[in-house]
Amino acid sequence: MARLRRKKCDEARPVCAACGALEIDCHYSDAKPEWMDGGLREKQMADELKAMVKQKANERRERKWGLLPTMMDFSPSAQMMQQQQQQLLQDSQSSDRVMSDSGDPLPSEYGYNPFSTILSESSQSPAGSSSTSASSPLTTTTTTESQVSAGHHQPVLPAVDSFSENKSEVEVNFTMIYLDYVVPFLFPFYRPCLLESSRGWMLVLLMKNRALFHTALSLANWLYAVLFDSMKGQHSACRRANWAELQVHQETAIKALQEDIKALNERGVANAFLESVGCMQSVIQLLEFDITMGEMSNWQAHHDVAVALFDQLITHHAVRDGDVGAWTSILDRIGFPFFRIRIENEKYILASDQSAFKFYTAYLLWIDVIAATALGTAPRLQRYHAELLQGDRPAIQLGEYVGCESWVVAEIAEAAALATWKREQQSKGILSMIELVHRACAIQRRLRTKMASLPSVPASDRAGNIYDPSAYHPVTPYSGFHEMLAESSSKKSQAVSLHTQIWAQATLTYINVLASGLQPSLPEIQSSVEATMALLRALPSPLALRTVTWPFALTGCLAPTGQEAFFTGLVADMGAMHVFGTVREALNIMQSVWQHREGGCCADPQMWDVATCFSVLGHISLLV
Description:
The chain is mainly alpha-helical. Among the domains are: 61 residues, CD2-Gal4; 135 residues, no CATH class; 160 residues, no CATH class. The chain has 22 helices and 2 strands. A two-stranded antiparallel sheet has the order 1-2. A hairpin with a 2-residue loop joins strand 1 and strand 2. Helix 5 crosses helix 7, helix 12 runs parallel beside helix 15 and helix 16 packs antiparallel against helix 17.
């Protein structure tokens, strides 16, 4: 093989030094092999050898994740942790375990879904807890209730590895692309001030969490893929290389998350606080990847696991003490021994891990509510809304994360819960229309009262004088946003107000459909649709459409005949970026609904609702 590679061979037996170092097959014989003919067969063998060298190099890099030390490995705490790990390793060697030869979880037969082989199908929660949702897919496999009560608590060890210092320059570069381009495009309203830990926590988390790190790089590769595709056939080699890199990072992320979830299952959420937080954040990041790619076949599984982890974190680790809520006690424990310092209103100086937990909590609450409207169920995390979303100054102010104020999201949750109640009553044959209308009107009154306090939309068709961070193209770097202007905060609040009005007006439409069925010709539905369309016209840029996908889709499904061009035009104006997220999915939904309507399939309005529309493509669409 050394000869084929034009390298010097030391002729050692049975494996020469060159082949041994590369971990490839060593073929040595006094007789010349048949394939070494100086022609096609020799070229094929050379190509196979190159592929083998590359594969083995990738495997060696993969093994280095847990082998190469960082500066943190030499701290006293790291030394103690290594001793604990060695002790646990000795204990595990004495027990019988069924594992693969490498000790890794067996791969999922479904490929993309990382949870099918690592989460038990049992509905019981860790340590026999009955307070967690019965549909929770996450269970422990080694920690039993008797062990916990007997005091058999093993030390908490991180299931999420820190990656080594010698990351390639390409990965470092794509890390910054993720932070400077992808994050501002996906979360244009998320601009934490310096005292709130700024965005530094994101880099800290990427450095600590291997699964999340590779998912972030996948998102950066996806942005590149979208931009390359917009170049009309140019840079084909770069496109292929970028797509291959995306797949490698995503496979690595899934494998890392499988390992983390498996370790967490063995320990149990009750005995692994920080690991549980890390796993929850990794799953939510994977859910973010699903949404950004427009991949609708896996988001429900990832949503289920994220909700289960959040539930069990509260169940096993929250401390309800006076005015401190359950979620807040988790936030405080993450930051221990440091305490939150109030800056103003409900803003605090937070540690990096606290900022990460708050961010992913906000995103999960947001997804959970929008998912409920598509699934036709009540939001699974609705019991936490009183602490996190309701009130004049909620703990999670979603306007700072997604551009829509928390009170609108809380009312969407109420409407989704009412839709579930209606469906249950209908199935029993005891639906009271008086009760339905009464409850629907109560939600509408609360919405209209809040909407009346919002600033009015500028008279111009497009609110160009509003500083709206969602209006910027992703090639605009983070530093290019005008956040340094003294008046930027007030200008940004105007943009949040506009986006909040769009969401609130679409929610009124949602409630009208809930009460009356899918009847676009009803006056109250027509007027609400027209009001939402007027607000969509006021968006300062077509790119801002990505932050209002749910209102856009809902309004489009109910748009009167002849208005279809308005919605298709908005998507076309986004250019190539309409595939980066769920805007394309929203357009496909409304076009399918239009076809059904023209074919007379929507003749019975009571047979169609919003959830029906969002599943019209043959799968349930999550539009965030």
